[in-house]
Design a protein that fits this description.
Helix content is 50%, strand content 0%. By secondary structure, it is mainly α. The radius of gyration is 15 Å and the shape is globular.
Length: 107
């Protein structure tokens, strides 16, 4: 069914975006460290499991550069082509910052 096929299409789209990103040129701000794997980002165990469960294997170029600065609370301006993982970058950064034991608004 279409419902069963959606995760497969999503995983293939992620892989295609990663291949396209590898062929692109990048300009990275001075002082921004590139982290080649999600493990290098030291994400929460449950978050990293979820990322891998959704079919992400390796962070895209934008994710390699922008997730950790988002986690650190820096002002981030990130520009990349459609489908390269910008939304996931923002969401992963936000989810990593949440203190799930704190039942209050969090910055």
């Amino acid at each position: 069914s279409l419902h069963d096929a959606l995760p497969i299409f999503a995983a293939e789209a992620i892989k295609l975006a990663a291949l396209e990103a590898e062929e692109a040129d990048f300009e990275t701000s001075k002082g921004v460290k590139v982290r080649a794997t999600f493990d290098e980002m030291r994400l929460k165990e449950d978050l990293i499991k979820g990322i891998y469960a959704y079919g992400f294997e390796k962070p895209s170029a934008i994710q390699q550069r922008a997730i950790v600065p988002c986690i650190k609370g820096f002002d981030v301006i990130a520009q990349a082509q459609s489908g390269t993982g910008k939304t996931a970058t923002f969401v992963i950064g936000c989810l990593q910052r949440i203190d799930y034991g704190l039942k209050a608004c969090q910055p």
